[in-house]
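Per reviewer request, we include the raw input and output of the structure prediction for the construct analysed in the revised manuscript.
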Amino acid sequence: MRRYGKHTDEDDIRSRPNRKGTRPRTNIRPAHEDAAEGMVLTVDRGRLTCLVDDRTILAMKARELGRKAAVVGDRVALVGDLSGKKDTLARIVRIEERSSVLRRTADDDDPFERVVVANADQLAIVTALADPEPRPRLIDRCLVAAFDGGLTPLLVMTKSDLAPPDKLLELYGHLEIPYVVTSREELETGDAAQRVQEHLDGKITAFVGHSGVGKTTLVNALVPEDRRRTTGHVNAVTGRGRHTTTSALALPLAGEDSWVVDTPGVRSFGLAHIDPSRVIHAFPDLEPGTVDCPRACSHDEPDCALDQWVAEGHADPARLYSLRRLLATRERKEGD
């Protein structure tokens, strides 16, 4: 290591630069008023593919956004090279306010929530009627997340050629959720996609479902020009499908302002982030009956005023049962 004596006026002495620099620090950040508006289509290892006008732009998050992350469906502001040419990269400098957010946690003990998709109008919950067997508890959890996040649920039942939909329709009929029943033959002929399409026009719809239920196959039928890799087989021993969709992807439909967001297959849907008191908002016919409830009422306890409200004929008892079934969802495992 080089050492210097008492006299350090040699010409080759290098002074350490001032790490704070000569420019005064400021909290003022550029407004980026000329930033272009875009929509996030997919996210892959820190790179975000965005749609700006009719071009797809590869972008990264600007440092000034800190820990705030953009997800599929986000409306963002971009600066930099917006040509969309190969080897170009833009910057996302602003994430606009979200109208809805679909969140989940890995399990009910996980404090870290994950945003699946932003600004979706509708959540299509895809479930097979057989192979694999339907999982009502997982459906319930998706419904709670949809109601909490401001999305309208749509129930899509596949493989009706293997089992009838009667039991599921009876279970969810009192929730007044729109539904579509499809068979494997209808998927091949395109009839299934046509009937599902009627519920998607003019909306951004996120598709969620257990692996192997035919979710991506249905998305491929809806958007044939942007086919994703088809779903894998269902394990004959576990009854579980293989994950073949590894990242969420927004795809445009033929209708104006119509999009589908295909998401990876889920095997659990944690609700650690859900405040149970917000679930009642999905039951406008029951909500007035909560006025006389005790403070911080869970709506599933002996003193709940909803029992008297329903007994007086203000609402269908089946609706109260459905509410309490959803409220109890966090305390049950999906496979129960």
